[in-house]
Design brief:
Elements (H helix, E strand, L loop, with lengths): L3 H40 L5 H40 L5 H24 L3 H33 L1
Length: 154
């Protein structure tokens, strides 16, 4: 694989590195720090509860922003780049590339919508879960195909 597909794979690799960083930060903020702020809100005296509530709401907005960026970069740019590379390569059927490219573009749209409008039952719960599930299945199918090819080559 050379030329354009190789460049697109490099873009996907860089997106993976950025996604890893976003994932770690999201885990730290949402998985660790948020609990502290929510517990502080629950334990706040009556006069300070409004401030504690505002800080907790701010933490939620930071969570949504980080999660939106993770969707855009990981599920969007990474898979769209891999899909574009597969479309231009002779390694796999073009349909595999188109699936990843289209779902990557949809994921970018989901992430942007969520970043602008916040969490939504339809977009976040159903649309994102559907796109992420199909992309997970795509990774498994591509992985199995690669594994089979490596066995035939040996």
């Amino acid at each position: 694989m050379g030329g354009r597909p190789k460049v697109r794979v490099k873009v996907a690799e860089y997106a993976l590195f950025v996604s890893a960083g976003l994932g770690v930060v999201l885990f730290a903020v949402d998985g660790i720090s948020s609990k502290f702020f929510h517990d502080a809100f629950v334990a706040a005296p009556a006069g300070e509860s409004v401030i504690a509530l505002r800080v907790s709401e701010l933490m939620e907005q930071i969570d949504v922003g980080l999660f939106s960026m993770l969707i855009i970069v990981f599920f969007g740019f990474t898979f769209a780049s891999y899909g574009a590379a597969l479309i231009q390569s002779d390694s796999f059927h073009m349909a595999y590339g188109w699936i990843a490219l289209v779902l990557g573009i949809v994921a970018i749209g989901i992430g942007v919508y969520q970043a602008i409008d916040g969490l939504s039952t339809v977009i976040t719960t159903y649309a994102f879960a559907g796109v992420a599930s199909v992309l997970n299945l795509w990774v498994i199918v591509i992985g199995v195909n690669m594994w089979r090819r490596s066995g035939k080559a040996a």
